[in-house]
Every structure is written in C-alpha cells, then in structure tokens.
Design a protein that fits this description.
The chain is an alpha+beta fold. It folds into two domains: about 230 residues, FAD/NAD(P)-binding domain (3-Layer(bba) Sandwich); about 80 residues, D-Amino Acid Oxidase, Chain A, domain 2 (2-Layer Sandwich). Helices cover about 40% and strands about 30% of the residues. The model has no long low-confidence stretch (mean pLDDT about 95). It binds flavin-adenine dinucleotide. The site of flavin-adenine dinucleotide has 34 residues, from α1, β2, β6 and α9.
C-alpha cells in the first residue's frame, strides 16, 4: 500500500497550496523540497487580483497582512512620459516569498500535510506498467529513500525534475524572453504598483513589507548579456532612468538595502500536466515570462484546479484520465491567453499604444480567472475512516 495519497515535489506557491487544499480535503499528503524552510527564491512577488482572491478564499490573507505586507489601492502605468493612474476596487499585495511561501506551508501543515525541507528528489519510482508510484530522494544525511504514493505531483518549478523524468510533452511554446534585474530599496515613495514602459525597456516599483520597495527593470536578453549582467546595479539604474525618469529620481533618493539580482530570460511554455500516476502544477507545467508578474497568481489558481481533480480521482468518483484531462482543459483555457499576451509584451516589439492594448487584454484575461475561481465551491473534507 502507498505510504501517502499524494506526494508533492516543491513546497512553494504551487506545491504548498496544492498540499494545503488536499490536506483540508482529508488526504494524506507529503511535500518535499530541497530548499531550506523559509528561504527566498529568484522572484519578484506582485500578486494580481486572482492571486489575492485565492489567499482570501483560503483564509490566509490576514496572515499576509499581519506579516507587514502593505495593501495597494492604486496601480500606475507610465507609458513613455504619460501617466495613467487606476484606483483599484480591491487591494493588491506583494508579499516577499519569505512571507508568502511560509504562510502557505504553515497552513498546509496545520491542515495535516507533512512538509519536509532539505530533501532532494533524485528520480521517480514506477510499477512494471510504467505508472509513477512515488519518488526516490536523498535526504540531508545523504541517505537514499524510496517513498510511495497513489499520485505524485511535480510542483518543482521551471527546471522541474518531475516534468523531465516523465518527458512531459510541451504543447505550446513562447517565442520571446525578457531579462530582468531587481533589488530592494528603502526610502522610495510609491503611489502603488508602478509599471513603466518605453520601447525596448520596462521598469517599475513593487512596494512590499519592511518598508522596502522592489525596484525592477526589464530588457531584451541581448542587452542583459552584453551590458547589464556585468554591472547589475548600474544597469538597473540606467534602464530605469531611460524608461521612467520620474521613478528613477525617487529611487535615487532612497537606499539600496539588498543586492541586485538578475534573471537572463527564458521563453514560456505549456506542458501536458498529467499522465499515469503523475501531475504537474505551477511553473513545472506552465511557465511564462515574469514581465507580466503573473506566475505566482497562476500557481495559486492551478493548485485549486489540480487539487479538485485529484480529490475526485482519489475518491474514485471519475476515471483518473477524465479528472486530469479536465484539469488540463481548465488550466489551458485560462492560461493560453495569458501566455500569448505575456509573450507579446516580452518581445519588446511594441509601440506604446500596442502595449497599452496588451494590458487591457491582460485585464480581461484576469477577469476570466477571477470569474472561474469565484464559481468554485469550497472543497469538502472527506470523512476520515474510523
Ligand atoms: C525574476 C523573476 C521575477 C518574477 N516576478 C514575479 C512577480 O512579480 N509576480 C508573480 O506572480 N510571479 C513572478 N515570477 C514568477 C514566479 O516566481 C513563479 O511563477 C513561481 O515561483 C512559481 O511557483 P512554483 O511553486 O511553481 O515554483 P517555484 O517557486 O520555483 O518552487 C519550486 C520548488 O521546488 C523545489 N525543487 C525543485 N526541484 C526539486 C527537487 N529535485 N527536489 C526537491 N525540491 C525541488 C525548489 O527548491 C523550489 O522550492 C517571477 C519569476 C522570476 C524568475
């Protein structure tokens, strides 16, 4: 018999959320991650409407606010020298990953999931028919251990071992990538999330906890490779000043308090997210360029879609293939527009009116996500056998 109903590889946005929902539904869930508990990761962290909605639905938004994450009532777009201020009907939040991921993990543990850090997954176990039956791990003492489960989920990010091991088919690929630099400053005034665009570049501000502001700049990968990667802070300041001089002046008045980090860019993809005994969620199955700041939001969305599919499958209500194909269909219907818009923004081959139109399309796509999530009833806890 399997030791666990579900084993999840990866304990961040996608994995911890999926674990939380499945544990709340009464399933025996083990989550493993090779990282340290509470560690940071290479990512800025602006949440969009559907992401904040998920945290609210799961009862976790208060913990994010209590950890000192400021709410934003406004988004400002800088298109060249023009400024468009949007008042928001509901607040947005940008919790650091050192806040968001631990809140999700704690909620998963409180719901009964077992979460183990410092555990490196080396491969998948299979039965004689090729069905995935669990994982082979190396623990922090160097021991190799086999762990069995009814379903194994890869929530292990854009370099997913699970996706590689099952050879998950790529069903759609983006053509473009944007490189990004970011760092944290104090003493920078902000009006809310601020997104700046000018042909060939983007830059902006994301206010977060500890009175810090994440300052970022996006550019074509060639510029990053030839100029910016060797001078991260200078490069960030240059791209920021070229994109939105008014924002650059405010940043110059503040103090940088963490090193500038860089991401060289990577075109997006959509992978088939399931097969016999396995499923993928988050970046492992669907990655898009960070330029639209939507990966965490979609990870929280897809955790909900996958947890529902796995719940039905584990209950035996439907054939496994039907439950998982339904997950893929719902995920793809919501993701393909976002992937295409993001790919177009990451091309930097737009004029300012064109990028404005892409942002309006993005807003429509996010409304579709909100509508789809709002329609879902809460997962019902499975009666535990006496
Ligand atoms: C520069 C940059 C900026 C971004 N900015 C934003 C933003 O502003 N807003 C937004 O919504 N999104 C943003 N994103 C995207 C966001 O970071 C991702 O979409 C999100 O982290 C996906 O979450 P995940 O849980 O799927 O994967 P991850 O966060 O990558 O987590 C995967 C986990 O799996 C673990 N793991 C991997 N392999 C193994 C293994 N073999 N064994 C054990 N554990 C393993 C890793 O240790 C890791 O903890 C940004 C990304 C980048 C690169």
């Amino acid at each position: 018999m399997a030791d666990h109903d579900v084993i999840i590889v990866g304990a961040r946005a996608a994995g911890a959320s999926t674990a939380l929902l499945l544990a709340r539904a009464g399933w025996r869930v083990l989550v493993v991650d090779r990282a340290r508990r509470g560690s940071d990761t290479l990512s800025t962290h602006a949440l969009m409407r559907p992401g904040v909605l998920q945290l609210q639905r799961w009862g976790l938004l208060d913990a994010i606010i209590a950890a000192g994450t400021p709410g934003q009532d406004r988004v400002v777009f800088h298109y060249g020298d023009d400024r468009v201020d949007l008042e928001l009907s509901s607040r947005l939040y940008a919790p650091r990953r050192t806040v968001l991921d631990p809140v999700l993990v704690a909620a998963a543990e409180d719901s009964g999931a077992v979460v183990r850090f410092g555990v490196d997954v080396r491969g998948l176990l299979r039965d004689p028919d090729g069905r995935v039956t669990g994982i082979r791990v190396r623990d922090r003492h160097g021991r190799t251990i086999e762990l069995r489960s009814r379903m194994t989920v890869g929530a292990d990010g854009r370099r997913s071992l699970v996706a590689r091991d099952v050879d998950a088919e790529v069903t759609r690929r983006g053509a473009n990538a944007a490189a990004a630099m970011y760092g944290y400053w104090t003493g920078v005034e902000t009006a809310g999330y601020e997104w700046g665009f000018r042909p060939g570049r983007s830059a902006g501000l994301i206010p977060t906890g500890d009175a810090r502001v994440c300052v970022y700049a996006g550019m074509p990968p060639q510029r990053f490779a030839h100029e910016v990667r060797y001078d991260p802070e200078g490069g960030l300041h240059r791209v920021l000043a070229e994109t939105t001089p008014s924002v650059a002046e405010r940043v110059a008045a503040g103090q940088r308090v963490e090193p500038v980090r860089g991401f060289p860019g990577m075109p997006g993809w959509l992978r088939r997210p399931w097969g016999p005994g396995w499923a993928l969620v988050g970046d492992a199955g669907y990655f898009k360029d960070p330029i639209t700041a939507h990966g965490i939001t979609d990870a929280l969305r897809d955790a909900e879609l996958l947890a529902r599919a796995l719940d039905r499958l584990l209950r035996g209500d439907v054939e496994p293939a039907d439950a998982l194909a339904d997950y893929e269909r719902r995920r793809d219907a919501l993701s393909i527009p976002l992937l295409e818009i993001t790919d177009a923004v990451a091309s930097f081959a737009w004029t300012l009116p064109e990028v404005q139109r892409l942002h309006l399309k993005m807003s429509d796509a996010m409304q579709q996500e909100v509508d789809a999530l709002t329609e879902l009833d809460p997962l019902v806890a499975r009666p535990v056998a006496a």
